[in-house]
Amino acid sequence: MSAALELRGVGLTYATRRGEINALDYVNLQVGDGEFVALLGPSGCGKSTVLKLAAGLISATRGEVRVASRLVTGPGRDAGVVFQKPNLLPWKSVLENVLLPARTLGMPIQPARIRALQMLELVGLSDFAGDYPFELSGGMQQRVGIARMLLHDPQLLLMDEPFAALDALSREALTLELQRIWGQQRKSVLFITHSIQEAVFLADRVLVMSPRPGQIVEELAVPLARPRTLETLADPQFMALCQHLRRYFTHG
């Protein structure tokens, strides 16, 4: 399997007033073409740091990061990113928010507009293209963020706890929605989460990170059939996988 994302021997050390902090220590991971990989770990372990390295937003102290076999030296077109908050511009319509990457990436505007409308249809927001962010629910705003991420058709999707700020029902609905979108698009995904259930439900593989300095301490394949449904949550195999992962986060 060719790698959409690869981290080889990656470490990150940064300076603080109290001295150097070793955030990541010799991280190795791969996300294959069309593969959905969840990265699970405790707060402060460096999950979001891994995502920022993959996105080219920060640079590693040691080791190398490659996206589509190219060495990452800064933000590029091969990856799209969704953060915890969609960070929509309140004075721009939904359609204009989705079109924002077109301007920064120099995409021809008319084809980009057609693509933006297609992505809004994909995430179920065709009827809201002319609305403004304040008129949308939190879940709908996050769907706009997903549509914006997909605008320039990146091969790799980097998602940093995109549903963390949502209520339980919205989070459940968007988890199912993301699975549907991924099933249609078959992009490569690195999905950061605190939720064991979310990781097992969505992923082909779950990578577990240790507390800081972050390292990959387990790689767990998820052999559950797709598409996964709410009934999957009661599947004995699903529950056994969750229980297996829970031992990393249960102390005492």
TrEMBL record:
Protein's UniProt keywords contain Nucleotide-binding: yes
Alphabetically ordered keywords of this record: ATP-binding, Nucleotide-binding, Transport
Pfam families: ABC_tran
GO molecular function: ATP binding; ATP hydrolysis activity
Domain of life (superkingdom): Bacteria
Residue ranges occupied by any ABC transporter domain in the UniProt entry: 7-236
InterPro entries, per the entry: AAA+_ATPase (IPR003593), ABC_transporter-like_ATP-bd (IPR003439), ABC_transporter-like_CS (IPR017871), ABC_transporter_ATP-bind (IPR050166), P-loop_NTPase (IPR027417)
The keyword ATP-binding appears for this protein: yes
PANTHER family associated with the record: ALIPHATIC SULFONATES IMPORT ATP-BINDING PROTEIN SSUB, TAURINE IMPORT ATP-BINDING PROTEIN-RELATED
Family of this protein: Belongs to the ABC transporter superfamily.
Protein name in UniProt: ABC transporter
